[in-house]
Amino acid sequence: MKTTKKIFLRGVLLISILLMASCSLKEQILDTVTASSVQADSTLLQNIVYTPVSQLPIMGEWYDMWGLQEMCTDEAMWPTRGTDWYDGGSWQQIYTLSTNPQHVQINNAWNHMSNALTYCNTASAALLTAKTSPALLQRYTGMVDFMRTYYEYVMYDLWRIFPYRDPKNADFSVAPTYYTGAAGFNFLVSNAKNAYSEMISRDAAPYGEPNKDAALMLLAKLYLNKGVYTGTANYDSCLYYVNQIIATGHYALANDYFAMFLPNNATRYKAADDEAILVGVNDDSRSHGFDWQNVWVMPCFHYNQTFNGNYPSNWNGGATTPFYLRNTWYTGTDTAQDVRWKDNRFYSTTGVYIGFNNGVQHDGQGNIIKTRSGAPLNYTDTISLTSSPENFGVRVLKYYPRLTGVIPYRINNSWIIWRYADVLLMKAECLARSTTQQDLLGAMALVNQIRAKRHAPLVLAITQTDVLNKIYVERGLELYWEGLRRDDRIRFGTFLNARTDFPGTTNTNDYIYPIPQSAIDGSNGTLHQNPGY
Q: Which helix (H) or strand (E) holds 34?
């Protein structure tokens, strides 16, 4: 597999801008748009303020943003297969927690978030002189402030530091302030609360536009992980915010689990069983330059597994691990009943399941797919990080691809960043951990509410330790491959433990990634490396 260079929008001048119509997110290619041109033409304002929102699909990109949250855990491994997938050891380094300040995926992720913050600051600068109604100005300001805080939160989570520029200062030559530690946490909380007060409600929001519920979820996520971030937990505050989300009545567990991840999942918006709280919109009207990376067909599935000819050049890479399968699926549920394990609705067309693909593989006509040597392709639980034959590893497909369309590789599955099942599991965890409101029976009732919806056997636990273990397992069943595993394992104390092809470590510096050396070199001495790197 050759690392593919991706080109993203950079800088303050926005050449290709996401145009937000009054009722939907849609891209149009425009002439150069700047803050000054907005002053002359107020209709261009929306082009700038929605650009930060257009970056959200990056959070589902396997190559770096998603990879830094999943490939360092037990859920996902990109093993070396012969001469394929070594790539300078970058995939092995993520999995074994041995990255360095020159690591390509870490550099890419840092640049993605830095660029996204640049778009936020550009939007804020345009809003300073915008000619629009007070109501619309507040709506745009709240949305941009939320997006800035969200991207700062992502950087804080991965590196425990983030840059901040005063949105009321349009002079981008002024060096940013860097926030870290408890001060960074408090700053994010304060800004998320301010954004909430300015944002519109979900009832009034078009699909894809972050609304008040997203701000509540950001606050809940911050408090869920406050103990990790600052050393002082506050699960009661997380409980407060998840209860606020539940009380809106906007969400319910999906009746069809995989419908959330299918092509055109945008059509589920505001359905009675809609779970999506924050999404990155993908649609036919635009290419992000990395569509094939979001699908996860090409990076994961075998060279000869073509999805009925629609994916003829797969790379046979990523898979899940025996450790995760054994400790989450094989002992945590009944795979014959649990609908989250695999779904066959497209199997007769492509020979591929939604969910987990193991055993002998077939094409859409029922023929056995062969390896390069001509043997039956049999995906096994066995896997080796440094030396895997082409059949090693169970393959996972959470977002099933659209097989026909404008461009076969262009996807229209919106990436779900946060959803309702996560809210319920966060509440269960807070009830189990709270020092003032502990309710172990209530926590287990929430876990079993989800399991009943997914046709999984109900479970019983009485002690706090057992309840938390059941919640941890359930998060691995319900939210697999959704970019949440790293935080979960850190919070539950399993991140550094031994797992498939990794003996474990006691180095808590590995909870966060090294800051790219290029960022340090360009900071004029204001940015310093994280401990241990």
A: none
Alpha-carbon dihedral of residues 239, 244, 248, 251, nearest 10 degrees? -30
**In the predicted structure, residue 12 carries a pLDDT above the cut 80:** no
Predicted TM-score of the model (pTM)? 0.93
Contact by Cβ (8 Å): 87, 299: no
Q: How confident is the model at residue 411 (pLDDT cuts 50, 70, 90)?
A: confident
Count, residues in the chain: 533
How far is residue 71's CA from residue 481's CA, in Å, rounded to a whole number? 10
Instruction: Give residues with Cβ within 8 angstroms of 94, minimum separation 6.
Output: 67, 68, 71, 72, 78, 103, 105
Give span(s): CATH 1.25.40.390, the chain: 18-286
Bridge partners (DSSP) listed for residue 278: 418
Nearest Cα to 464, choosing from 441, 489, 493? 441
128, 169 in Cβ contact below 8 A? no
User: What tokens were used for 403?
Assistant: 């097989």
Helix, strand or coil for residue 261?
Answer: helix
Question: Would you tell me how many other CB atoms lie within 10 Å of the CB of residue 459?
Answer: 17
| Helices 420-433, 212-224: crossing angle, 10 deg rounding | 40
Alpha carbon distance, N-terminus to C-terminus of the chain: 28
pLDDT digits (tens, 9 = 90+) for 206-243: 999 999 999 999 999 999 999 999 999 999 999 999 99
- Identify the CA nearest to 214 among candidates 21, 70, 422, 64: 422
Domain 18-286 bears CATH identifier 3.40.50.2300: no
